[in-house]
Amino acid sequence: MVPPYPYRAKDFAVVKSADGWFHCFYIRNDFTAPYDSTERDLGHAISRDLYNWIQQPTVIPARVDNWDNLKIWAPTIVLVDGVYYMLYTGVTYQPGVYDHYQRIGLATSTDLYNWNRLDAPVFSCEDVPWTVCDPTEASTGEFRDPFVMPAPQGGGWLMYYDTHPASAPSTYIAGVAASNDLTHWTDLKPLWATQTAWSGSALVESPHVFAHAGLWYLLFTGDGSQPLRWMTGSDPTGDPAAWTQRGTLASMLGTDTHLWFASEKLTDGLVDYLCFADYDRADFRKIIWHDDGTFAVTNPDLLHVYDMSWSSPSAATGQSVSLVIRSANAFGQRVHFAVYAEHADGSEEQVPNAAVQFPDSLALMSATTTFTWTAYSWPDPYQSTANLVVRITDWTACTTPIAVAPQPFVDIGSVSNRDGERYVPRELVEFSRRPAGAGFRALARSPVSGIAMLVDLRAPASLRIDLYDLAGRRIRSLADREFPAGASVVAWDGRDATGAAMRPGVYFARLRSAASDRTIRLLLER
């Protein structure tokens, strides 16, 4: 992914959305501009195949009237219940008060185009007692490059970042913080395994952590002629004894990596990618894992299936139904299938393709291929109704379940159709529009404390959100203000207007504006 001249990409984050697009958000460095006149927003590009990229409008611009007024750096993104949460580094400059002071901010989105930010940073060196922290000195206010992942023990999040330790202020070290809601972070510890004495590098930037086959991997950008370094360990927050220093990535890969920095790992189905900044671009390589925990990298597969959809959500045994396969770089390629039966509890069981008369593979000759299947139920085509899911064998794409019933056909009507208007339109112009379903809903899962609701708007609007009990009594106003376009998360802490805790039970939140009046049901548990 090469940005247009005169920009180059630095630290970035990449995610794959539900509609099959890869989204890359990157620091946009104008190498022709003075230092204080660039890196003032994040570049955004999309791709179907990791090869061909289409630049989109930039996001998260520096706000001249807020704390992130100078620079925008180093995004990291997590997805929870349909909401994307981006943590990023914002830099503040205010003469005599803040000199290039770096802190971590938070933004939310549901479409990856419209982002709403909190008005204050969520984490800074002031929250970390072991670091150097002087916002009036540029060299001692360095606190950047967040990487966020779910805590391995569950129930929260971990953030890795880089800063200066007070014990060795001329060096960098990775720190670890913890949070239950992504908005309130507490210092967990310095990751001493990244200090110079153990890592062999006085520079530690852009740390990121992931697990594979029971082993934790930590990659970071260090000093020297081959910047990317790696270590493995048994505990992602462990002391130095829990980690093994593995040296430079160049030594393991047997290739020159002197222009590589700021690595990320992307997982798509069963496929892992090593992603990294490569001088002026974001680069993507498929990981080939070895049994000893090392790995090689190669170019991504050219073929990428990004959507598979049925012509109907249900069919009877013996009835013809079409599977539409949309893919990039398809001509002359062959795609391989695996079939699964979906059980009532949400679990899946792999079904032999031959048992339902589905082919093991199919040759693709164009970007859109239509395959006609004679539906066949399982395990008994004359007695059983089966909800079947077809996946690409590397799990990078799958269908929604199709309900296959025995003869005579009974339309059980229990599977949602992904065809027609429910699809996000694929024309590029549609990516600037808000998706269908924007509005007001409760979030089944959210990192925000309390009961969370999503307000998702096509345009800014003045909204009032009130809370009612089952008897229709208004017990509290949750919001009465102007909301920006895009995704905003509103939380209820389970208390009434006086601050008293409400009893567990069912409540209702009502959203009103000049153009809308919507009510949703909330369940307050103990």
Describe the secondary-structure layout:
Elements: E1 7-16, E2 22-30, E3 42-47, E4 53-59, E5 71-80, E6 83-94, E7 98-109, E8 116-117, E9 143-150, E10 157-163, E11 173-179, E12 186-191, H1 196-199, E13 205-212, E14 215-221, E15 228-233, E16 243-248, H2 249-253, E17 260-268, E18 271-278, E19 281-289, E20 295-298, E21 304-310, E22 314-316, E23 320-328, E24 333-342, E25 348-351, E26 361-364, E27 368-374, E28 386-392, E29 402-405, E30 440-442, E31 451-457, E32 461-468, E33 474-483, E34 486-492, E35 505-512, E36 517-524
Could you describe the 3D structure shown?
The protein is mostly beta strands and 526 residues long. Helix content is 2%, strand content 49%. It has two helices and 36 strands. It has helices at residues 196-199, 249-253, and strands at 7-16, 22-30, 42-47, 53-59, 71-80, 83-94, 98-109, 116-117, 143-150, 157-163, 173-179, 186-191, 205-212, 215-221, 228-233, 243-248, 260-268, 271-278, 281-289, 295-298, 304-310, 314-316, 320-328, 333-342, 348-351, 361-364, 368-374, 386-392, 402-405, 440-442, 451-457, 461-468, 474-483, 486-492, 505-512, 517-524. The strands form nine sheets. Strands 22, 24, 25, 26, 28 and 29 form a six-stranded mixed beta sheet that branches. A hairpin with a 6-residue loop joins strand 14 (215-221) and strand 15. It starts with 6 loop residues before the first strand and ends with a strand.
